[in-house]
Amino acid sequence: MSLIEIENLRTWFPVRQGILSKTVGYIKAVNGVSLSLEQGETLGLVGESGCGKTTLGRTLMQLEEKKDGTVKFEGDDIHGLKRDQKREIRKRMQMIFQDPFSSLNPRMTILDILTEGMLHHKMIKKEEKKEAAVRLMTEVGLDENAIYRYPHEFSGGQRQRICVARAISLKPDFMVCDEAVSALDVSVQAQVINLLMDLRDKYELSYLFISHDLTVVRHISNRVAVMYLGVIVEEGSASAIIDNPKHPYTQALINSVPVPFSEKKKRFVLSGEIPSLLNPPSGCPFHTRCPEVMDKCKETVPEMKKVDNRIARCYLYD
Ligand code: SF4
Fold first, then answer.
1. Which residues approach ligand 1 with their CB closer than 6 A?
2. Bridge-partner residues for 96, per DSSP?
3. Residues 172, 123: contact at Cβ < 8 Å?
4. pLDDT tens for each residue of 34-74
5. Is 0.90 topped by the overall pTM?
6. Where in the sequence is the domain holding 154, given as residue range(s)?
7. Core-most of 17, 180, 219, 239, by most CB within 10 Å?
8. Of 259, 185, 199, nearest to 42 (Cα)?
9. Does residue 121 form part of some domain?
10. In a domain, 134, yes or no
11. Ligand 1 mean position to 69 CA, how many Å?
């Protein structure tokens, strides 16, 4: 049994118009995604901005309502749980956001930020707060004497370490890292990535690592899924997907990386805007930008099928 199993997940946002707020359509941000994640595994999720990556992560965390499909955590459907079971699952699933500053309450000291969740879940007593916060600060490589300071007194990289410390304080099994290093300087990015990898190995954590940066994803992920207009178009091991992409969209994404991946690849580079999630194209969602488009691509949606050592959604491999 996988730690996380996602089946045919859909998250649609209604578009309302008029004084009666009539629903005139849906933004299909996640439109039939199936994925699984093992304990201790990192699944990289890549794609252009607006392809639905963040909505997928937020739906897993129950921050967005799903329309359809299931998300199972250790075999239990997380949307069908009772209140106290939901509370326990929420503790075991944590999320790290892109902007470490806005995700930390500026009026709270680091001591309170780090221990608030543990107190709420009755994992520690009030008198154990300091000891717990010091342990967490040491775990993420920060000065333990800084627990009485406020978030604005730290750099961006330090604030993201505090967010990581807060997430691991609840002893999660699974974390969604949503562009968790994108806002940091390159040298600081590497430090935070290494910290995440160390914690993954130490606690057998599983990550859904959402990023548009393929170099970072290649470094941290065991497997990679490529998302386009709310659907997964290619999925496989990180080496298969990044070093030898099969789907034209993945190839175009890789070609947009300056070095070293793009040197030996076909030079088709993505042009034009990603189509609207409100009105996705018929057939293959990538057909409006694909250099290999055929007539049938415009008519029916290709199924996910095995292509060499990965699965991909493309008629080129029929
Ligand atoms: Fe391109 Fe057709 Fe493959 Fe879609 S199915 S990626 S349009 S070749």
1. 247-248, 284, 286-287, 290, 292-294, 297, 302, 314-316
2. 177
3. no
4. 999 999 999 999 999 889 999 999 999 999 999 999 999 99
5. yes
6. 4-107+150-317
7. 180
8. 199
9. no
10. no
11. 25
